[in-house]
Amino acid sequence: MTKKLTDARVLRSRQVLRSAAIELLSRTDRFSIAELLLKGRVTRGTFYRHYNNKADLINDVNRELIRQFTEKTEGKFRVREVLEVISEQGIFYNAVLNNGQDKSLMVDLMAALREQRDRALADVSDEKLKKHLIYQWEIIVAGFWACVSLWLQDSMALTYDEILEEFREIWRVTMTRTKKTGLLLFDFDV
């Protein structure tokens, strides 16, 4: 029984520290441990029980954020679900995409997304077709992040349905074409 209580406290402490870090990273990556402790209302001892330093915490935050994303992109990049994940931390993702905060997050996230893409294309034996699909995937993902960046900058003024419609219009998603293009790795359903 004691172990379950300890595990719950550990999980809660980590979540509190992650949330405080995300809130601080939304403004600057130059926050101090003291600011983090104040924001999270935790002690220095609690922080150092879980993390070696601020970089260790940020790496943990990034791993958790990437885990949230990759749950929504395994097999197919489910655009609506990814938008929901982004909107839950809209201020933070705006800071990452538009203000250059937490630069390592996007590098690591893109590496994880590319690994998923490569697994999804593992059965494609025609190397020319595979390169074609990878090229298109890169273009679609770059366009996706550019649109999301503008959406966040505009305080998410468009609804999910409206932004999904914009994506469909941009890439002219049709069921017949998606089977032959990099769009087969995406789900633009409303």
Automatic annotation (TrEMBL):
Keyword Hydrolase present in the record's keywords: the answer is no
UniProt xrefs under InterPro entries:
Homeodomain-like_sf (IPR009057), HTH-type_Tx_Regulator (IPR050624), HTH_TetR (IPR001647)
Q: Does the keyword Nucleotide-binding apply?
A: no
Keywords, ordered alphabetically: DNA-binding
Spell out the protein name for this chain: AcrR family
Instruction: Give the DNA-binding residue ranges.
Output: 32-51
Which positions fall inside the HTH tetR-type domain? 11-69
Where are its TM segments located?
none
